[in-house]
Specification:
alpha/beta, 14 helices, 49% helix
């Protein structure tokens, strides 16, 4: 039988070990965490400068400096833009920002926001897209911790020769950023050339393409207003098209965070973050257009009647998409109606 002295000593040692373990756990929980963020554009582009950097700074501040975010721009960590979503999913990096349309067939329900003449203001449509994904397409993002989704503003043409109507577009080699947009370009009479947006500058300068579909906001970073002198816009509040984006975090990187740091990430996820990215896009559109105006470029504004011709011609893209979704047991018509209702709700 153990003596009372031995028992007391054993108890005190056990308590000391427990306290030490607790202190070590607390110390470990207080250790700073470094998260690596990877994206495709140069740092001066709209989203890196006006959304990713401010988001990172906000997260670092709200974590009391315990979360450190390293930003890697312009694919510095390797790979190609279509691989970015999987880099976050697979833990190659911790956080990525990318275009969903670069991985065709992966985000079927999310594609609805790319349909022609679907949306206008990036802030309103980004809030609508976030709500839409949460309600109708969350399963397409279950492999990551989704921070936010968003859209850009009205998509338009930037071309070497002016696009003044449907006829003038025919035969032009035009860059498209997704399969939906490329289908639309085909219906409109252009020859679509698919490529990620960082490739646009070289493709224009080498004559691989005659023009590109992008919003105003990314034209400065790509020097588009220097490479082409014509830009074609459409009547009304909606653009020709929009593209969709995901800001994603590796699920294991998120799960490893202590609860208080998870809360920091959660507080900087969702609809308000989507709105911030959308506002950045809207502000970037104004700045990009102003550069083209100051350069004396030709900005073609198609009137209501001509815009309606484009709308009627492009409408078959939606018909094609709905039919394709039927084959995947997805009610595309219902999703398109839901998307439009949410855009209208957030545009009020």
């Amino acid at each position: 039988m153990k003596s009372p002295t031995f028992t007391r000593r054993a108890t005190m040692l056990a308590m000391a070990a427990a306290a030490a373990g607790s202190m070590a756990g607390t110390a470990f929980a207080q250790q700073p965490v470094t998260l690596r963020m990877h994206q495709m554009l140069p740092p001066q582009a709209t989203i890196p400068a006006r959304a990713l950097v401010p988001w990172a700074q906000k997260v670092e501040a709200e974590s009391g400096g315990r979360i450190k975010i390293q930003l890697f721009h312009a694919m510095q960590l390797g790979g190609a833009p279509p691989q970015l979503f999987d880099q976050a999913r697979d833990g190659v990096v911790d956080i990525t920002w990318t275009v969903l349309g670069y991985t065709p067939g992966r985000f079927n329900k999310a594609e609805v926001f790319e349909l022609p003449f679907m949306s206008g203001s990036a802030e309103a449509s980004s809030k609508a897209f976030q709500e839409y994904v949460e309600q109708h397409a969350a399963d397409e993002f279950r492999s990551v911790k989704l921070i936010a989704v968003h859209t850009h503003g009205p998509g338009l043409f930037h071309t070497k020769n002016p696009v003044t109507g449907l006829e003038s577009l025919r035969g032009m080699k035009i860059r498209g950023g997704s399969r939906i947009i490329n289908n639309m370009l085909t219906k409109l009479g252009a020859t679509p050339v698919g490529m990620p947006v960082p490739a646009v500058t070289e493709a224009l300068s080498k004559g691989v393409i005659d023009g590109t579909t992008i919003p105003w906001e990314v034209t400065p970073a790509l020097k588009v207003s220097e490479l082409v002198k014509n830009h074609t816009t459409f009547a009304g509040t909606t653009g020709l098209y929009t593209q969709t984006f995901a800001f994603s975090m590796n699920r294991n990187a998120y799960d490893r965070l202590p609860d208080d740091l998870k809360k920091v990430i959660d507080n900087n996820s969702g609809i308000e973050t989507a709105a911030m990215f959308g506002r950045a896009m809207d502000e970037g559109d104004k700045a990009g257009r102003e550069i083209a105006v100051k350069a004396g470029n030709n900005i073609v504004a198609l009137d209501v009647a001509e815009t309606q011709r484009w709308r009627r011609t492009a409408a078959t893209v939606e018909t094609d998409w709905i039919e394709e979704m039927k084959g995947k047991n997805i009610d595309g018509a219902k999703l398109a109606a839901e998307a439009r209702a949410l855009i209208a709700k957030h545009s009020r």
